[in-house]
Each structure stands twice: as structure tokens, then as C-alpha cells.
Amino acid sequence: MSTVVHFSPELGSWLTQRLDQGQPPIQLLETMVAERMDPRVAGAILDAFLSARRGAGPLPIDSLLLDDSALGASPPKPRILAGARIATADRTVQVLARAENPTLALLGDLLSAEEAAHLIALARPRLRPSTVVDPKTGRDQVEAHRTSLGMFFRLRENAFIARLDRRISEVMNLPVEHGEGFQVLHYPEGALNAPHFDYLVPSNDSNRASIARSGQRVSTLLIYLNDVEAGGETIFPNLGWSATPKLGNGTYFEYENERGELDERSLHGSNPVVHGDKWVATKWMRERRFVSADAEGAEGMIRGS
Ligand code: PD2
Ligand code: ZN
Asked: How far does residue 220's CA lie from ligand 2's centre (Å)?
């Protein structure tokens, strides 16, 4: 990967002038860094000017294309393990496809049809209209752009959920305690989930308090609990990537880019269900042990923006 680095034409003229005057490059580098320029960027710009003066390349005007390795940036190291299969204590999960940057994978065989049906049966009587947190007030509210129904299990709330919590934590390669309790979503025909980030944007007290308790969210696994006749794909608008829901498959993704920042390429949503309905279980992982806001274990639908 490469990154375009922009600089002002004034900087270019200043460099040319000083090099013409015979000023040592190291002094120019020191001045640029003293002016708060990233030393790697300053070094790369200076190198490009020196190369151009030796006739080894074009004189840059106001930008440079730099290989990310020159900036010390490399693809994020995925938490999910390498390989075509992930062996957990009680099931072998298939890695059907994976991308390196951003870290994204399509998984298969996450659970059996019986387990999916049991999860749906446990969730169904507890479903409520899904909410989003108002970024200003931090209060839960029902929104037209999120028309699914949802509920939360508490982490390890019974033996069946505990088995799934453990399996999925092994797939996501983080301790089970870092997991929020499973969320189960039901999308009737026509229901959708507008694109959003799963990481917590500290724009309200509720998200700030949650980050302080448990750290940031770091990864998501969406587990499809049924086949959908038409529609209901999980979409990543910034990547042009979508996953068709299929019983037992799952979409896994992480949110860190090569610079260790939260990655806007993780923007994702669910297309409207066209025919049939859609059931999904979501697992979010935190940097540290998940401590919920209340004894119920439900963190609410904490959303970005
Ligand atoms: O159901 C989905 O495909 C979906 C899409 C986006 C679920 C979530 N986000 C979620 O639970 O965060
Ligand atoms: Zn989401």
C-alpha cells in the first residue's frame, strides 16, 4: 500500500533554496522536524528533493507517493488466527475467505442448525425494537434506519450460551471475558440496519463511560442463524464488499488500520430483507474484560456517530 503525502510549495522552494546555498541536508531535516513535521515524512520529502537534484527522479511539486513501509506503517496484525480452519474446543470452524487489510473474513460452520434454532427459540420471546444511542444525550431511542428487533444474552447466562461464548471467543482469539453478551437480531421482511461503525465513538457520556470500563471494541463477529430467501446481505459500503447470510456462516472484522487508528473502512450495515426474514447473533469483543453498565449485562445498542 502507498500513501500520498502533501506538502506546501513554499516548503519545496525553501528546500531548493537552502540546498542551492549548500546547507547540509541533516540541518534541513532538523529544521523540518523542529517545525513538528513527522520525521519519516520529512526524511522522505528531503530524499525526494536530493534524488531529483542528482537527476535520479522528478522534482516533486507539492506531493509524494510514499510506500507505507517508508512511513513505518504495515498491515494490522490480525487477531484472528491464520489458516483455512480454526479448531475450537468443540467445533472446527472454516475460513471461507479472508482479507488482510482491513482484517475481514467470511467464516463457515460456526454452529449447527440445531444450535441456531435453539438460539432463536431462546431469543424470540425477549425481542424488543432495536435502539440506537442518541450521540448527544446518550439515551436509547428507536430509529427508522434500524428496523430490526433485538435482545441481549448475558455472558454465559446458561450452559448453552456459555458453550457458544467460549467457541466464539476462541474464533475471535480473545478471552471469553472480553466479550459482550451475544446480541440476537431479527429482521422481518423489509427490515434493514443502516451503515454504522461498531466501535464506540466517545461523543456521549454513555460511550465514554463504557470505554473507561472495558476499553474500546476491537472486533465483531456476525453469525447468520438462518438462510434468507432474498436480501439481508451484510454490506461494507467503503469496501464494496457484501456477505450473503447463510445458516452457520459469519462475517468477522476488526477495526484497526495500519496506523493503529479506528478504521472507517469498517462501516457496515444490513441490506433490507426482500423475501423471508433474517436472524443474526452478534459478538463484540473489547480490549479488556467487559464490564456492563448494569447487572443485566446489556450494553444497549451503543453506536457510533
Ligand atoms: O445483520 C447484519 O448483517 C448486521 C449488519 C451490521 C448486524 C450488525 N451490523 C450489528 O449487529 O452490529
Ligand atoms: Zn454493526
From this structure: 8
Three-state secondary structure call for residue 23 = coil
Confidence label for 139 from pLDDT (cuts 50, 70 and 90)? low
Per residue in 49-70, pLDDT (tens digit) is: 888 888 888 888 888 887 766 6
Measured from the Cα of 183, ligand 1's closest atom is 11
How close is the Cα of 294 to the center of ligand 2, in Å? 22
CA of 234 to the centre of ligand 1 (A): 7
Q: pLDDT value at position 269? A: 97
Whole-structure pTM value: 0.75
Angstrom distance (rounded) from CA 107 to CA 30: 50
| CA-closest residue to ligand 1 atom 9 | 269
Q: Give the ligand with the smallest distance to the CA of 278.
A: 1
Cα(198) to centroid(ligand 1), Å: 9
Residue 243 pLDDT > 60, yes or no?
A: yes
Helix (H, G, I), strand (E, B) or coil at 197: coil
Measured from the Cα of 284, ligand 1's closest atom is 12
pLDDT by residue (tens digit) across 288-302?
A: 999 998 743 444 444
Sheet strands (E) in the chain:
2-6, 63-67, 85-87, 92-99, 104-108, 128-129, 131-133, 140-142, 149-152, 183-187, 193-196, 217-224, 230-231, 234-236, 241-243, 250-254, 268-270, 273-275, 278-286
* DSSP tag of 275: E
Atom of ligand 1 nearest to the CA of 282: 11
Between 225 and 75, the more confident residue is 225
